[in-house]
């Protein structure tokens, strides 16, 4: 029987909107299992416990192995790229380009996502209603042949596995991570389970915003608090789609895993090609999977943690700055004036009713930007436990 442990969470409360206190307290009972996850992830009290799938329990040993694999170019067929090529710690595990190239030079059509607090997402990637667990999604960067990221297709699988199984250091890491395995073989499953564990361990919870939630009322400036109120107000409407601890409608945690939100997708008026709500033909979001015309331009509201250091923005990296992002929403959509993708997103028939446009001032825009900057977590982007284990540590 699980011993129940009491813990206190801080919840953002709607009181905020009426200008009262920033938060209220609720006491929730959590199991010893959840408690061990919290300890492993060093979660502060204001963070909920993420849902860890039963088939891949979180352990320190899997996280360690996953960290080595994440930074190892031997995990790409031609040994040119690792996960970290597109997911850099100093950029909160995003990269600096609109759309990256894969290991063979293949041009991807999407912007690399930052990897903070991925464990809380109910769906993964910019627009997919079938990826609920990292163990499914991670096959794509490693194994897919179109587009090629790491390029470990069937033809290269044996060779890549041999690189790890013939390395004594890795052999020890694999044995420690999978002590109950029937054999010591290195398999793609073990690689993916370890990588998923490392990605789940990437918790960002030390930003000024977090310090504020944890009780340090001096952590945010008056301008940032004003920006937070605007973000959560009925004029800007941001919070409807960017909600919760991660600022995304894609959300689950250990207590809500069974009723997690599995359709967190919206069209935010970025395009309106030809006036029928279409997006550029190389990426129409959810529509490309469902072929339902009503799903054109449906993407997942990206989590906004560390957003100030992850430009450019949107699924295709088409917006360069946070100011331009806010101007996009204030306008009620983006206008592409010329070219094959011409069309005014503000007039899109498929755009969400929450993107109506609004009158705003420079002062308000600056406040919302200042709030978004308060989500930058210096500890997360310099924490040695997420850094490249093949490079010697430099003093912080
Ligand atoms: C060539 C660049 C590239 C490489 C290499 C790469 N990624 Fe990504 N990653 C991306 C892009 C682009 C996306 C968005 C994909 C989409 O929406 O279809 C993404 C999305 C993700 C996501 C989903 C994040 C979310 O918010 O849902 C995770 C997790 C992830 N990558 C982890 C990894 C891991 C682990 C590796 C190594 C095995 C890896 N990536 C290798 C570019 C890359
Ligand atoms: C109707 C839901 C909705 C509303 C309202 C909304 N967003 Fe978004 N947001 C989205 C979606 C969907 C995306 C991804 C769209 C894409 O990539 O094509 C997004 C993307 C973003 C991004 C880019 C993140 C990145 O890493 O690329 C930022 C920043 C952002 N929104 C901020 C805001 C702000 C600020 C507001 C309020 C003014 C707001 N959003 C209102 C749905 C919404």
Briefly, what is this?
By secondary structure, this protein is mainly α.
- Small-molecule components bound: heme C
Query: From the helix content, strand content and strand pairing, which structural class follows?
Result: mainly alpha
Mean pLDDT: 92
CATH C-level label of one domain: Mainly Alpha
Number of strands: 4
Strand order of the largest sheet: 1-2
As a whole number of angstroms, the C-alpha radius of gyration is 21 Å
Distance between the termini: 44 Å
Task: Output the CATH homologous superfamily of one domain.
Answer: Cytochrome c-like domain
Strand % is: 5-15%
Specify the CATH architecture of one domain. Orthogonal Bundle
Order of helices and strands: EEHHHHHHHHHHHHHEEHH
Helical amount among residues, as a percent range? 25-40%
Can you walk through the features of this model?
The chain has 396 residues and is mainly alpha-helical. The protein has 15 helices and 4 strands. The strands form 2 sheets. A two-stranded antiparallel ribbon has the order 1-2. α10 crosses α14. It is globular and about 60 Å long. Residues 126, 236-238, 240-242, 266, 268, 270, 299, 301-302, 304, 307, 310, 313-315, 322, 325-326, 329, 352, 354-355, 368 line the site of one heme C (HEC).
């Amino acid at each position: 029987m699980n011993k129940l442990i009491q813990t206190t969470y801080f919840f953002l409360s709607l009181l905020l909107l009426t200008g009262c206190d920033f938060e209220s307290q609720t006491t929730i009972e959590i199991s010893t299992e959840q408690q061990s996850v919290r300890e492993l992830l060093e979660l502060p009290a204001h963070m909920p416990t993420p849902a860890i799938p039963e088939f891949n329990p979180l352990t320190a040993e899997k996280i360690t192995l996953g960290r080595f694999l994440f930074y190892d170019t031997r995990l790409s067929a031609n040994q040119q790229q690792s996960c970290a090529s597109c997911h850099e710690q100093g950029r909160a595990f995003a990269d600096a380009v609109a759309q990256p190239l894969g290991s063979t030079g293949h041009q991807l059509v999407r912007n690399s996502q930052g990897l903070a607090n991925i464990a809380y997402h109910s769906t993964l990637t910019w627009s997919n209603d079938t990826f609920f667990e990292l163990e499914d999604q991670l096959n794509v960067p490693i194994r897919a042949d179109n587009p090629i990221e790491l390029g470990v297709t069937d033809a290269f699988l044996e060779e890549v596995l041999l690189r790890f199984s013939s390395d004594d250091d890795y052999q020890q890491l694999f044995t420690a991570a999978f002590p109950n395995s029937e054999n010591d073989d290195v398999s793609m499953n073990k690689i993916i389970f370890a990588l998923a564990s490392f990605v789940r361990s990437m918790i960002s919870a030390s930003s000024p915003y977090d310090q504020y939630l944890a009780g340090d009322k001096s952590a945010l400036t008056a301008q940032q608090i004003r920006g937070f109120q605007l973000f959560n107000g009925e004029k800007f409407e941001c919070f409807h789609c960017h909600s919760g601890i991660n600022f995304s409608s894609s959300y689950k945690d250990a207590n809500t895993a069974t009723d997690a939100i599995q359709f967190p997708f919206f069209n935010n008026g970025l395009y309106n090609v030809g006036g029928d709500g279409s997006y550029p033909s190389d990426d129409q979001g959810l529509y490309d999977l469902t072929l339902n015309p009503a799903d054109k331009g449906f993407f997942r509201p990206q989590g906004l943690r560390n957003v100030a250091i992850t430009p450019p923005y949107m699924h295709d990296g088409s917006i360069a700055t946070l100011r331009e992002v806010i101007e996009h929403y204030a306008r009620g959509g983006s206008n592409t004036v010329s070219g094959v993708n011409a069309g005014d997103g503000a007039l899109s028939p498929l755009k969400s009713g929450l993107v109506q446009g609004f009158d705003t001032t420079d002062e308000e825009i600056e406040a919302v930007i200042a709030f978004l900057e308060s989500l930058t977590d210096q500890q997360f982007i310099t924490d040695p436990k997420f850094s490249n284990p093949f490079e010697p540590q430099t003093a912080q």
